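One such given next:
>
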Amino acid sequence: MRIAHAVAALVGVGVLSACTVTTDFDATGPSGRPSSRTTVKTDVDAPPQRQDQSQGTQPQSRRVASASQAGGLVKLTGQGAVSDVAIDPGEIRPNMTLVMDNYQYRGRSGDPVLLVAVDNVPEDTNTRREHLWRGMLEYIGWTYGGVTAEPYAPGPYGGSLECFLASLSESGNVICGWADENTAGVALFPDSDLSTAPATFAAMRGDIER
């Protein structure tokens, strides 16, 4: 189910641990319709909420930016570009940056990799990552219950990088997300697996986060 939020809404550390994203449904089984309740349970105590930057907290220096290439993938433009708000990115304040782009492997056809990233997040970045994860699960219409994100090497920027398989087979939709002191990002890898998507996501992060 795609989220259809108005564009006006857009203006309005590193603990490596497994995270379980569970989605509640009105009915059980693949045909169940999702209810309005989605809960995220983590295996560690949630870090304290970050102080609101509008109350004086200085933003971290690291930001996110759209890149023409990310991890060897090429950003799609024209008809292949993201044309609307593919998923709900959460609250976006004036001092924040939102990146939402489609990327494609060189010389490969098929569905692109959708990447969404934000910086200067006012709440804990793990909380924002979980929000983005839920948006991705709704985007692909996942109605098969909970998924468990596992930690992977985050790359030189540190923080936490986790991925999970949203597929009934060993390959299919893989969703990854990072969170650090100031930024959070997620990506959807169609027709992938947990052997390749995490490393690709870490490399993409290196080109998106500055």
Remarks:
- Confidence is low (pLDDT under 50) at residues 1-16, 22-60.
- The radius of gyration is 16 Å.
- Residues 31 and 169 are 18 Å apart (CA to CA).
- Residues 15-43+62-208 form one domain.
